[in-house]
Each structure stands twice: as C-alpha cells, then as structure tokens.
Amino acid sequence: MSKSNDDPSLSEILDTLEDAGDAEHVTINQILEGFGDRSLAPILLVPAMITATPISGIPGVPTITGLIVGLIVVQMLMGRNTLWVPQTIGKRGISKDKMAKSVRVLRKPVGSQVRQQNR
C-alpha cells in the first residue's frame, strides 16, 4: 500500500492483507505493520467487508464482527492512529494459504461495489 496521505481503496486494503506475513504464516501484528501508522480506518473496513459476505449468515459472526468494530471505534475515540492489540492476540495468525483464500472471497463484494460506482 502506498505511504501517501490518501485513504487506501478497498482493493489496496485487500492487497495489503494478501501481502502481509512471511511465506507460510500471517500474524495480526504483521497485518498491522502492513497498514503502517494509520491502521485504524483500513482495519475497520475488514470486519465490515466480512459482514458483507455470505459468511455473515453463520450464527455469531455478525456479533463477533460488531464487537471488533466496537473495540476499534473505542480506540479511535481515544485519539489513536494505530490499532493496539495485546501481544497474545498480535502473535496469533493463520496460514498464508487461508489468508489468500479469505482475500479472494472478500474481493467478490469489493469488485461488485467498484463496478457499481463506475456506472
């Protein structure tokens, strides 16, 4: 993602998620490092994009994403520019393959949104 002051597009956010981590594993801290010193807004969009997919039909997923959004918003209200997470959460992660698959799923609603805006 570019380091300019411009807000990143949804596609750039997904690119950052896809590029995060090493060859085999992606941690929360690596994702946050990918977004840099203004990570709150892009990270806020990730649970929102998850809610826009069919995954939100799974019981409990909307509640979890809502709680994540709430925790991010509290940090925004506190005046933070970057997301703080406890070390135990920051060290958690998933395999690079699962991240790539998740990003592909999230690109579908993003792509349809971009096509609608270009009309």
Which short descriptors sum up this protein?
mainly alpha; 119 residues; 6 helices; 5% strand; two-stranded antiparallel ribbon; Exopolysaccharide synthesis protein ExoD
Explain this structure:
With 119 residues, the protein is mainly alpha-helical. The chain has one domain. Helices cover 61% and strands 5% of the residues. It contains six helices and two strands. The protein has helices at residues 10-19, 28-35, 40-51, 61-77, 87-90, 96-117, and strands at 25-27, 93-95. The chain has a two-stranded antiparallel sheet with strand order 1-2. Helix 1 (10-19) runs antiparallel to helix 6 and helix 3 runs antiparallel to helix 4 (61-77). The model has no long low-confidence stretch (mean pLDDT 80). InterPro entries: ExoD (IPR010331). This is Exopolysaccharide synthesis protein ExoD. The chain crosses the membrane at residues 44-74. Keywords: Membrane, Transmembrane, Transmembrane helix.
Write the layout of secondary structure elements.
Elements lengths: L9 H10 L5 E3 H8 L4 H12 L9 H17 L9 H4 L2 E3 H22 L2
Give a concise summary.
The protein is mainly alpha-helical.
Percent helix, as a range, is 55-70%
Strand % is 5-15%
Order of helices and strands: HEHHHHEH
Largest sheet: 2 strands, antiparallel
Structural domain tally: 1
Straight-line distance between termini: 26 Å
Structural class: mainly alpha
The helix tally amounts to 6
Q: What topology, given as strand order, has the largest sheet?
A: 1-2
Radius of gyration: 14 Å
Low-confidence stretches: none
Number of extended strands:
2
Q: Which term fits the overall shape?
A: globular
Provide mean pLDDT, rounded. 80
